Amino acid sequence: MRGLYFELGKTWVSQLLLQVCLGHPSSALRAPSPQGEGYVLNPELSHMRVPVLSLGILFLFLILIILVIAFLFLRRIRRGNVFEMKSVKNLQAMGWVTLATILPLVALYVYTEKNVSGSITNLYVTVAVLMMGVIAVFFFLIANLFEQAVHYKEENDLTV
Amino acid sequence: MSNLSNLKTGKAKAIRFSTLEAICKVLKCQPGDILEFREDIMD
Q1: ipTM exceeds 0.85
Q2: Can you give the pTM of this predicted structure?
Q3: Which chain A residues touch B7 with a CB distance below 8 Å?
Q4: A154 to chain B: closest CA residue
């Protein structure tokens, strides 16, 4: 499992994640050399590589789930089946998954705070947590509006 | 056709005045001849 994480650590997304969380910010923007030596990890923080990478990948995986649900939702809208309970369920699912993304972010915050007290990267994580909270509330709001719309549509459809 | 289907299956929740007028016009009757209040089927 450990080997898998290190293999994953070689992809550009994980390199970027690691650099943002553990390395010098400017090196994250620099393109890697063909040998993959372009990124410079702070040696004092290298033990944080696996946990931070795992939490980052978990976060990205949850974002991917939201995108997949959003794609299914948009496909339903394109087919004209807009005001259905399935749309409401989709929006609620997106809201819950958005809330779930806060968990790895909080874990990342706590882990970083324990290892590097007063880390500036935790500021980004805090902003991300707040943003995810706002987005989740937005999804739930839209879901509630859709639920009302479904009731109105049903009332209208069943009027002879 | 969906209106008839809703009426037949008992799903209909409401009736438009225009529908009621059309029915009364065709059947030459009053709404009271079509509608009936029954206490036993109230929610």
Answers
A1: no
A2: 0.70
A3: 160
A4: B13
